[in-house]
Amino acid sequence: MAMVCSVYDNSKLITIPSLDKLRACPSGWSKNGRNRYWVVSMDSSVVNAPHRKKKEWEKSLKVVMVDYDEGKHEVKTEVRGLGKEQVTKRYRKRLKEGLGQNDWTISEVVAEILKLQPRDDIDNLLNHWAGRFHRKNFSLLVQEICKVGALKHAVRVFNWMKNQRNYRARNDIYNMMIRLYARHNITDQARGLFFEMQKWRCKPDVETYNALINVHGRAGQWRWAMNIFDDMLRAGVPPSRSSYNNLINACGSSGHWEEALKVCKRMTENGVGPDLVTHNIILSAFKNGAQYRKALSYFELMKRNKVKLDTITFNIIISCLVKLEQFDRAVETFYLMRRNALDCNPDVVTFNTIMHAYAASGQIRDAKATFEMMIAEGIKANIVSYNTLISAYASLGMSKEALETFNLLEESSFRPDIVSYTSLLNAYGRSGQLDKAREVFDLMSRISLKQNTVTYNSLIYAHGSVGFLEEALNLFHEMKHVGVQPNVVTICILLAACGHCGQPEKTYSIISLAVSEGIQLNINAYNTAISTFMNGGMYDRALCIYGNMKEKGVKPDSVTFSILINGACKIRSHIEAQKHFDEMLDTQVDVTVEACTALIDAYTKQGLLNEAELLFSQMNTFGCSPNVVTFTTLIHAYGTAEMWEKAYSLFEYMEANNIEADTIAYSTLMSILNRGGQLEKVLNFAERMREKSITFNEATYFEIIAACSKLRDWKTTTKILKEMEPLLSNLSIGLINHVLRSIGKSGKVEGMMKIFYKLEQYGIEPTLETYSILLDSLSAAGKWRKCVEILNWLENTRLQPPLSMYEKVLNFLEKEGNMDYVVLVQEKIEKMQLRESVAVK
């Protein structure tokens, strides 16, 4: 079908017979068939010389295709270059004599080259291109092929170009090739081009040095970048702001933030002022060097100097806040960006960082809501977004949700990568679904996705966490066999598995395995080994590992001392706990709230309440404030000492200082108040929990029902029972017995029996105490028929009721005058006595 194109030229409609003719026209539009439009406009960019007026052959043509039938939209930029008509006289004869000389544009040549493999005859294709006789086309050709990032094709084209008679070496071509090598992190070839261009009498300019500094910075070779910068100065090439920025980035991306600051200072001294890019690079250098607080201080300095901030700046700051676990500040900054209060909008990196913050703090629902918010605001999620959400679900073992997100990723335009599959595997592993975890692992092999160390670590953790230590060790040997190198994280997982499997004695063999593999244990590995022995009740062996750690020159941290103090607490030795705490102070390790809480617990278990109170009051001087666990520990100590007034006052002081009490704190205080006879306060605290939407646990329900029972407040008891009814299947039989006793005392035996009937429905097996409570309550209510019925049920169970239970029912029946049932129960008693006498013989 012939194509008819229509183009606007100076407000006049011109009809052109074909799209080829349209390339020579200015901006406009054309119609091709039904509902299909080609829109053409001239690009305003200028190639290689932005300071001069562009020439016609340098201009690029934008072509937009909209197909309403298929729902497709495509934008193409066509670079023309010089063609057959502009060939000089000296080459025209060769064009006439040559066969198959194609008058392609630059874009068409690049398209033809990319159709070939790098090993194919690209030279032959280029030798049939009429534009090869124009040396001005060479720069455009390299530019377009470098935009695509096809390195091997670009090298073949560049080598062909150098063999052409009309080729002349140019700085811009070499600069583009060096930058292309930088994109692929190939430094040796980039340096080779740097020396080659000088042989071709091309003097490197500032763009050349910038490209070379950039390629070494991307490869992490910051010293090379520094040397190249010095060579630039010796060559008399004045560095630009981009030169300094590239050098600062080279130092910062390698974690050498001190060197980055030195270069920044040198930059200012040389009269080149930093811009926003420079400041962002410095912030990034602090982040890469784990100097998160310094990044925040530098950020405040930027604000005081009224530097206009952008989205990249806030992305770095939010990331630093997340690393410091200041999640509230990170989220607050994010919402300020969304409200445009900071004059910049969040992008996909911002949303990904906030999702990670929510995941790290265990707020998975908020992470999911952030993902949905990003989609709703028109920001396209990338593969990192999906992987972050899958990883968040995996951290809590939410395999169903992780699989749903994984399926969403497959339905999107992205292909799941190694991180996606590993996170899904981790989700199955943490939820105890070993078969599905192994299934994902095997699937990765089938789709030729090579498992890495993180993948194996996830699978090893999955087996070790559920007690399969041998299988975990087999996976360790398997990963070595397939060429995947285990790391110290692998060793930490195996050491933790020894504790999960109840085999702490195998810790030494795991450490020996690490030594044989040349894996140097870090503080996390030693802490895991010490904790494994402590949890196994092997305090002396834990101290032995601690001694070995110090001999190896590994400095203990706050986690180490917290584990040691907790271990001393378990063996009820406050002297050992105090010794570890003193050593913590002597070695100038930061005192943590966990260590102080553990020592307070050790004091309280030995009845040393004064020492516990003293340490509690000194915590702020150590640089750590008591948390809800610390307060709860001391409140429990006051309860043990029968000091409910102090426990009550401390709880009120905690909430007055904006430390939110949790369920355990409330249940601990309720127990103390019950023992102190403060029953009304127990019910008041129950109401306070409801107002604050704090979840009730078994201990809370137990204390509330106990208070109601003592107060004979059956109305509140009935209300609590209605709340508990949906949770009946998750309650322990001990709490259920307590509930039955309270209802029985109120005389509402029908309600008591209703709960008892539901036990079988929920698969809860009653105990002898359960039946004893029922018989006592039914006897008190005069329900003698129900008593006999309960005895019959009891005989059909696997329980062996004591003789005293039957005798108690017999006495009740005799008082009621029910002789028929008296005879029946007497027969049961005689049978039991006979069985007991036979058993004795």
How would you characterize the overall build of this protein?
The chain is mainly alpha-helical and 841 residues long. Among the domains are: 63 residues, no CATH class; 84 residues, no CATH class; 113 residues, Serine Threonine Protein Phosphatase 5, Tetratricopeptide repeat, CATH 1.25.40.10. It is 65% helix and 4% strand. The protein is built from 44 helices and 6 strands. A 4-stranded antiparallel β-sheet has the order 3-4-5-6, covered by helices on one side.
Give keywords:
44 helices; disordered N terminus; four-stranded antiparallel β-sheet; 841 residues
Topology summary:
Layout: E1 5-9, E2 12-16, H1 19-22, E3 28-31, E4 36-42, E5 60-67, E6 72-79, H2 89-97, H3 106-115, H4 122-127, H5 136-148, H6 151-162, H7 171-183, H8 187-199, H9 206-218, H10 222-234, H11 241-253, H12 257-269, H13 276-288, H14 292-304, H15 311-323, H16 327-338, H17 348-360, H18 364-376, H19 383-395, H20 399-411, H21 418-430, H22 434-446, H23 453-464, H24 469-481, H25 488-500, H26 507-516, H27 523-535, H28 539-551, H29 558-570, H30 574-586, H31 593-605, H32 609-618, H33 628-640, H34 644-656, H35 663-675, H36 679-691, H37 698-711, H38 714-724, H39 733-745, H40 749-761, H41 768-780, H42 784-795, H43 803-816, H44 819-840
Antiparallel strand pairs: 1-2, 3-4, 4-5, 5-6
Helix pairs in contact: 3-5, 5-6, 5-7, 7-8, 7-9, 8-9, 9-10, 9-11, 10-11, 11-12, 11-13, 12-13, 13-14, 13-15, 14-15, 15-16, 15-17, 16-17, 17-18, 17-19, 18-19, 19-20, 19-21, 20-21, 21-22, 21-23, 22-23, 23-24, 23-25, 24-25, 25-26, 25-27, 27-28, 27-29, 29-30, 29-31, 30-31, 31-32, 31-33, 32-33, ...
